[in-house]
Specification:
Layout (H helix, E strand, L loop, with lengths): L1 H34 L3 H7 L4 H10 L17 H12 L4 H19 L2 H13 L4 E4 L15 E5 L2 E12 L6 E7 L11 E7 L4 E6 L10 E12 L11 H37 L1 E2 L2 E2 L4 H29 L5 H26 L10 H11 L6 H15 L1
Parallel strand pairs: 1-4
Antiparallel strand pairs: 2-3, 3-7, 4-5, 6-7, 8-9
Helix pairs in contact: 1-4, 4-7, 5-6, 5-7, 7-8, 7-9, 7-10, 8-9, 9-10, 9-11
């Protein structure tokens, strides 16, 4: 009996690996056929890629990490990270459209009630309902306990008032997981925080679209909740005081995603720099033959692949169900810095042409700094890493 079970497990693993390979191959084809040809044009125009969104629905990307029992692809965090990295080798922005959405879905899948999972996850998986997570406020970013958005109980409903900012998918999305305070007097504050699933409706309005240096073509918005009424069954888990924990759990997947973006961008900038260095000639030979350029290329390659290993380590721990804020923090810290350093080095390799919008490298240079800020600044990642090292020692 045990031998048969082992055989069945091995067969299932082989089938899963084959499916993951097919998904990654499909992503590669899609990126080359649909994403690469429009990336520069859409980025420069800050144009939302409506066509890509519909294609992402067909590819199942809005259900990438959602369980197959709810209609999702059921990808492991490891495979999901590879999907993200491959897209980001060409253009980072599209990954933000489904990543924030999947953080919301992950909160429901991990902490939601059976009814919430049955109602929301299939609709999230198809992209019928899509959006993201509403954490950041004008006066609260890394310090989530400082949020001021309040949800006050009134009979069978809660009434939400407050403002969220820098919310990805805030304009084009139609549903958000919103972090609120249900008990503003709680000590410590995180014990009074709760997360609600909020579909757009009366009292839930878009304040303004935020213009950005990079990460264009994805809508980042300010959202205003004014006497927005939501029924009590939209409280994730239907127990107050769990919102901070739910947000932190979702951010583990979010940080793995950001780290995977860093891997993709580090590899993408290396590919651009290498191709240019083999083509551009000075003093009678390609600059790739000059030692100064070779040293840069070697460091860029090493950073990219070291980042990939850290991402895989964090994803493996996430998939095993273990706490992974240390591993996700390390991956996010290193991979985002790798993307930033590689984009800067690539700019130097391109020289004066790096400032031309005719070349892709300037977009990577504008996009990369966000990775050091989003999903928790790299300064806070260092603090998280250090605290976990002390706790685990």
């Amino acid at each position: 009996m045990a031998a048969n079970e082992h055989l069945l497990d091995a067969q299932a693993a082989a089938e899963r690996a084959e499916l993951d390979t097919q998904i990654l191959d499909a992503i590669d084809r899609w990126v080359e056929k649909e994403v690469r040809p429009i990336a520069r044009e859409y980025d420069q125009a800050d144009r939302y890629p409506e066509e890509l969104v519909e294609q992402m629905k067909e590819l199942g990307l809005f259900g990438a990490t959602i369980g197959t029992e709810y209609g999702g692809l059921g990808l492991s965090a490891g495979t999901y990270a590879k999907v993200v990295a491959r897209i980001c080798e060409v253009w980072m922005a599209p990954t933000g459209i489904f990543n924030s959405h999947l953080i919301m879905a992950n909160c429901v899948e991990r902490a939601g009630t059976a009814d919430q999972k049955a109602h929301y996850l299939p609709r999230f998986a198809t992209g019928e309902l899509r959006g993201g997570i509403g954490l950041t406020e004008p006066n609260a970013g890394t310090d989530l306990q400082a949020i001021r958005t309040v949800a006050q109980r009134e009979g069978d409903d809660y009434v939400i008032n407050g403002t969220k900012t820098w919310i990805s998918n805030g304009i084009k999305g139609n549903c958000l997981a919103v972090l609120t305070k249900t008990d503003p007097t709680a000590e410590p504050p995180h014990r009074g925080m709760s997360m609600f699933l909020c579909e757009k409706g009366p009292g839930f309005t878009v304040g303004k679209k935020l213009e950005k240096l990079g990460y264009r073509s994805i809508d980042s918005a300010e959202l205003v909740f004014q006497d927005y009424r939501v029924s009590k069954d939209k409280l994730i888990g239907e127990v107050e005081g769990q919102g901070f924990k739910q947000a932190a759990g979702g951010l583990e997947l979010g940080r793995i995603n950001v780290a995977a973006r860093g891997v993709g961008m580090a590899r993408g900038t290396l590919a651009l720099a290498l191709a240019y260095a083999k083509e551009r000639k000075t003093f009678g030979k390609p600059i790739a033959k000059h030692q100064a350029i070779q040293l840069k290329l070697a460091d860029m390659s090493t950073r990219a692949e070291a980042a990939a290993l850290l991402v895989q380590d964090a994803a493996d721990r996430f998939d095993s169900g273990q706490r992974c804020d240390l591993e996700a923090g390390r991956a996010k810290l290193f991979a985002s810095e790798a993307a930033l350093e590689n984009s800067t080095e690539a700019m130097r390799i391109f020289g004066g042409y790096s400032y031309s919008t005719e070349y892709e490298i300037e977009r990577f240079y504008r996009d990369a700094p966000l990775m050091c800020i989003g999903e928790g600044t790299n300064e806070i990642q260092r603090i998280i890493i250090a605290k976990q090292l002390v706790e685990r020692s």
